[in-house]
Amino acid sequence: NEWASAEEMFARFESRAPFDRWDRGVLKDYCDYALNGKVLACPPAFEASGYENSTAASANVHDVVQKLDIPVVIIRAPGMLPDGTLDLSVSPTDPKLVTRFPNAREEVWSDTSHFIPMEQPARVAALIQDFILRTRLGPGGG
């Protein structure tokens, strides 16, 4: 949680999972901007609590998303481990989430982990651009 510099953090992370799969530019930006002085701006315990609390009844978004009548694209990595263990090399996203939205589609990117935007930023940007264009043009993209 503490480094002498962003450069030291980068050197420590660049060959360590899951960061070894990240786009090098994204990892550099993360190291440059994630530190508040010499410590992570978001403490690991705080980040972990988000995952721990995501299974709480109050975190269930299914009723809310059923009311969103807007186009949605869900991108996720392959599903959770068979025993339900949280492993961020796979997607913690509920595989049934796409069925909760009235107007959604899902893409499972089998060559990614949970850290899709960090691993494939250009592919994510292209998907967003295509989504915006198709949404503006209406059904069928034109």
Overview in brief:
Helix 5 (97-100) links the parallel strand 3 (72-76) and strand 4 (104-108).
What does it look like?
This protein has 142 residues and is mainly α. 40% of the residues lie in helices and 10% in strands. It is built from 7 helices and 4 strands, in the order H-H-E-E-H-H-E-H-E-H-H. Strand 3, helix 5 and strand 4 form a beta-alpha-beta unit. It is globular, with a radius of gyration of 18 Å.
Helix/sheet category: mainly alpha
N/C terminus separation: 49 Å
Number of separate helices: 7
Radius of gyration, in Å, reads 18 Å
User: Which term fits the overall shape?
Assistant: globular
Taken in chain order, the helices and strands follow as: HHEEHHEHEHH
**How large is the share of residues in beta strands?**
5-15%
Question: What share of residues is helical?
Answer: 40-55%
**For the report, how would you describe the main beta sheet?**
2 strands, antiparallel
Strand sequence of the main sheet, in spatial order? 1-2
Mean pLDDT comes to: 88
Low-confidence stretches: none
